[in-house]
Amino acid sequence: MDLxxxxxxxxxxxxxxxxxxxxxxxxxHTRTCPIPDFSYYYDQQSASFxxxxxxxxxxxxxxxxxxxxxxxxxxxxxxxxxxLNIYEDTPQRKLLYSNSTNAYSDSVKFSNDLTQQVIxxxxxxxxxxxKDDKRERCVxxxxxxxxxxxxxxxx
Amino acid sequence: MxxxxxxxxxxxxxxxxxxxxxxxxxxxTVVNLSDIEVSTQVGKRKIYYRFPSPNDLISYIKxxxxxxxxxxxNPTDNADRYLGSRLQLFNLGVFSADFAFITVFKNLSxxxxxxxxxxxxxxxxxxxxxxxxxxxxxxxxxxxxxxxxSTIARDSxxxxxxxxxxxxxxxxxxxxxxxxxxxxxxxxxxQIDNTTDKQPILARVYDxxxxxxxLIRFMNDYTSDDKWVLExxxxxxxxxxxxxxxxxxxVQATKEEVNAGEFALTAQVKPxxxxxxxxxxxxxxxxxxxxxxxxxxxxxR
Lengths: 155, 301
Known about the structure:
The complex is a heterodimer of chains A (about 160) and B (about 300). By secondary structure, chain A is an alpha+beta fold. Chain A has two helices and nine strands. In chain A, strands 1, 2, 4, 7 and 9 form a five-stranded antiparallel β-sheet that branches. A four-stranded antiparallel β-sheet of chain A has the order 3-8-5-6, with no helix packed on it. The longest helix of chain A is centred in the N-terminal third of the chain and has 23 residues, at about 1-25. Chain A is globular. Chain A starts with a helix and ends in an 8-residue tail after the last strand. With about 300 residues, chain B is mainly alpha-helical. Chain B has one domain. Chain B is about 55% helix and about 10% strand. Chain B is built from ten helices and four strands. A two-stranded antiparallel ribbon of chain B has the order 1-2. In chain B, strands 3-4 form a two-stranded antiparallel sheet. Chain B is globular, with a radius of gyration of 22 Å. Mean pLDDT of chain B is about 85; it is low at about 5-40. The interface between A and B is large, with 71 and 71 residues. Strand 7 of chain A pairs parallel with strand 4 of chain B.
């Protein structure tokens, strides 16, 4: 009976740690991702998820016209390289940006004239990371924006 | 002894379920579609759908042509009349959009009571950690400062989204967001009488199809075990079809490099055209849908 009690206790501890770790990823971006200057404000389309080396996550979001965007990515310190690609969310899936052309920079800014669906594709490449690392780790995408003054004059 | 085994079994199931959260798609080959070589790798690909908040939608639609009237809003008396939690959550989205509308138009006289309506429904639905005493005090301290109230509205909505996500209640978030979308569209079309009237606002209504599409896809995860959500998703699909009756030339943005780590997407936005008949269909669809879920005598089935 004592043994079962001990097993149950250990099980509960493991369970709480596992769930806490999984859940804690959900606001990882708010704690870890680089932030822009104060002219931008947080966009609720930002998100965090758990990923491991070789995984890819797509965050499908909306960007508004006449707005400037700041997008940053971040991950657990064991992950050394994050690949961020931005695509138009269309059947052609046109690539708009890849941080692989910019030394895997953790942030990008863009101004946008067209309200459209975009895909923020985040992957943890095998190259540049420990391919033997099989653990799921937190990865975040922070989106911030500012509306340009001209957006308020649409009449 | 048997009770202990049962408890262990329940915990095991719980552990499996909790580990599965957030994984939207199974393992598959990931092919990098870009021209730029990163690497073709095998791993999991997950897809998450996101959509703007009511505050963002209102700020987007806001223009000199959009006017404010309390008559456009859902009366706050209704807040006590919604009986089921899903209907309450839908109307939490509605009142959040109304509150955003009020703050954008800087109408101080109505802000407090609409915040109270939001707070009341939020409290009933386990969101008291967000809409707590400290937030209430903050609202009271700033009730004569519309800019602060506007920031509070935005921040509290973000807090609510974070709270629901962190507590694994994304279905509730989907319902609240649906209410927000329907109300923002209602606040827009209720001011547009015909297709030549207020064309820029109509164009921005047309743009809402994009976020609505993402919301409908986001809801896919919650329709299999919930008929109410399935019906709501069906209504949103009808709404989306009505919005898509608008016609506009497809536009593609052109990318211009500004410098390393900075680029611009430029485009010449084309006007949107609705025939008189199609606009009537759109307006009727929005008004009927809004009435269906905000009518105080409608009870959750």
